C-alpha cells in the first residue's frame, strides 16, 4: 500500500489487512519527527482493503474500505469519522467483499469496485461498481459490468468469465481505468465502459489485483497468473 504525504503530514493504514480480529488503524504522523498526530482504530474484527493509495483521498478526507464492504471517510484534520457507508446501503448489495480494492476519489465522487454473485449466464463472478457522494457517503449509483465480448480484442473472449474488480480504480481526465477480471477498460463517471481490452497472454492468469500505472499516455500493468507472470503496456485509445 502507498502512503499519502502532504503539508508535513503522512497518512497511512497500519496493521494486518487479512486476519479478522487483528489490530489495524489509520494514522496521521508528523513528517518532521514521526510523532502521532491522530489515530483511528478500525472496528475490531474488520479487515481493511489494503490497496490504499494516493487516489484514496480528497482535499479534506482520506477514505478506506473494509472487506465487509464498508467505506469510511476520515477527516484529515483529526481522524474523526465523517461518514460510514455500509454494504446494506448499496443496491444491489456487494455480497462479495470489496476484497483488496481501496476507494478512489474523482470529482466529488468515491468509486469502489468489487464483485457480486453471478447474475450473467456463464459468468463465475460479475463485476460491480458503486459510486458514493464523497461529502456524505450516500449511494449515487451501482452497476454490474457487462460481460466481455468480441470487442475486447482477445481471440478467446468466451473464456473471460470473471468480471470481479479487485484492483483499485485509477482516475484520469477521461474517466477511470478499471481492470475487470482479466481485462482492462475505461469507465465513464456513470459506470459505462467506453472501451475494453484483454492483453494477449500465454498460459494461466489471475484476475488483475494491482492497479495499472499511467504515464505519458501509456497504460502499464502486471498480472501474476499461476506462475506465468507478465506485464503489458498499450497507448490509451
Please describe the biggest sheet, giving its number of strands, its sense, and whether it closes into a barrel: 4 strands, antiparallel
Using DSSP, what is the number of strands?
A: 18
Helix percent reads under 10%
Which percent range describes the beta-strand content?
35-45%
The overall pLDDT, averaged over residues, is: 85
Largest beta sheet: strand ordering: 1-2-3-4
Morphology: globular
The ordered string of helix (H) and strand (E) elements is EEEEEEEEEEEEEEEEEE
Q: What is the radius of gyration? A: 18 Å
Structural class: mainly beta
Distance between the termini: 29 Å
Low-confidence stretches: none
From the structure provided, what is the oligomeric state, counting identical versus distinct chains?
single chain
- The number of helical runs is 0
Describe this entry's structure for a reader.
The protein is an all-beta fold and 237 residues long. It is 0% helix and 41% strand. The protein has no helices and 18 strands.
Write the layout of secondary structure elements.
Layout: E1 4-6, E2 9-15, E3 24-30, E4 36-41, E5 61-65, E6 71-75, E7 81-85, E8 104-106, E9 109-116, E10 126-133, E11 139-144, E12 170-172, E13 175-178, E14 184-187, E15 193-197, E16 213-215, E17 218-225, E18 228-235
Antiparallel strand pairs: 1-2, 2-3, 3-4, 5-6, 6-7, 8-9, 9-10, 10-11, 12-13, 13-14, 14-15, 16-17, 17-18
Summarize the entry for a quick read.
The protein is mainly β.
Name some characteristics of this structure:
single chain, globular, four-stranded antiparallel β-sheet, 18 strands, 237 residues, mainly beta, 0% helix, 41% strand
Amino acid at each position: 500500500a502507498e502512503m499519502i504525504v502532504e503539508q508535513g503530514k503522512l497518512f497511512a493504514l497500519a496493521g494486518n489487512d487479512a486476519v479478522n480480529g487483528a489490530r489495524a488503524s489509520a494514522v496521521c504522523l508528523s513528517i518532521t519527527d514521526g510523532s502521532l498526530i491522530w489515530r483511528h482504530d478500525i472496528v475490531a474484527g474488520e479487515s481493511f482493503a489494503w490497496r490504499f493509495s494516493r487516489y484514496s483521498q480528497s482535499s479534506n478526507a482520506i477514505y478506506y474500505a473494509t472487506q465487509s464492504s464498508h467505506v469510511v471517510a476520515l477527516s484529515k484534520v483529526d481522524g474523526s469519522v465523517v461518514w460510514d457507508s455500509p454494504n446494506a446501503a448499496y443496491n444491489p448489495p456487494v455480497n462479495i467483499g470489496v476484497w483488496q480494492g481501496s476507494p478512489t476519489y474523482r470529482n466529488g465522487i468515491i468509486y469502489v469496485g468489487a464483485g457480486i454473485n453471478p447474475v450473467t449466464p456463464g459468468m463465475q463472478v460479475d463485476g460491480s461498481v458503486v459510486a458514493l457522494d464523497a461529502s456524505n457517503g450516500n449511494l449515487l449509483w451501482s452497476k454490474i459490468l457487462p460481460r466481455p465480448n468480441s470487442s475486447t480484442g482477445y481471440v478467446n473472449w468466451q473464456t473471460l468469465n470473471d468480471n470481479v474488480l479487485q484492483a483499485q480504480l485509477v482516475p484520469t481526465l477521461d474517466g477511470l481505468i478499471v481492470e475487470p477480471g482479466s481485462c482492462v477498460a475505461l469507465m465513464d463517471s456513470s459506470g459505462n465502459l467506453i472501451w475494453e481490452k484483454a492483453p494477449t497472454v500465454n498460459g494461466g492468469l489471475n484476475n488483475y489485483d494491482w492497479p495499472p500505472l499511467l504515464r505519458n499516455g501509456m497504460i502499464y500493468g502486471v498480472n501474476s497468473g499461476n506462475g506465468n507472470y507478465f506485464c503489458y503496456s498499450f497507448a490509451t485509445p
